[in-house]
Amino acid sequence: MSVPGAPTLPPSHGDLPELVAAAVAGDGGAWDGLVLRFTPLVASVIRGYRLSDADADDVCQELWLKLVKHLKDLREPHALPGWIVTCTRHEAIRVLTARRRIELVDPQASSRIDRVDHPDLDEDLLRQESRQAVRAALGELSEEHRTLLLLIFADSKVSYGQIGRTLGMPTGSIGPTRARCLKKLRKMSAVRALAS
Q1: Residues 6+ apart with CB under 8 A from 78
Q2: pLDDT digit string (tens) for 121-140?
Q3: What is the largest CA-CA distance in the chain?
Q4: How many CA atoms lie within 13 A of 28 on its CB side?
Q5: How many other C-beta atoms are found inside a 10 Å radius of the C-beta of residue 181?
Q6: How many CB atoms lie under 10 A from the CB of residue 90?
Q7: Which of 66, 101, 136 is the last residue of a domain?
Q8: Is position 176 within any domain?
Q9: What angle do CA 85, 71, 10 make, to 5 degrees?
Q10: What number of other Cβ atoms are within 10 A of residue 8's Cβ?
Q11: Same-domain status, 93 and 135
Q12: Total count of domains within the chain
């Protein structure tokens, strides 16, 4: 007999498909069950990389976020442990690689701090700021207009016919709507701040 409000133990390994299905359906208890069941596995993978506590927390957080995003795409629930191990490894390596790029120097003893070794750094920062401004501005558009612009400017070319079918709009109105959306986008505060 279960007591209301009491934590429930996750189902046994044989019940993994049911647990995954419940989590995909939005059952919070199922999500908790997945985290409870696989946290020791994640911890054991992270231990192999000798990460600091803060870095280990970052890896865990990123892994669980990815799981939330991609659990619905998992075709075989029994493959979940392998997926978790692989993603944890990738995240741990990403964190270690990022840490290696950081070089600690004594600002009073080193003259290297006064010179720039990467002239393209400014361009990278400007590109990142531009992307961030465009993302923020896109977030202010209606869902239909945001989707329209994302489809038009997708890496893989999407025809106006496909866009029209996806959004349920006449092909002839896509060009003028695109122009209006871009005009709105340019007037958004995030984009205007970038131009100033």
Answers
A1: 16, 17
A2: 567 667 777 777 777 888 88
A3: 70
A4: 2
A5: 19
A6: 14
A7: 101
A8: yes
A9: 75
A10: 12
A11: no
A12: 2
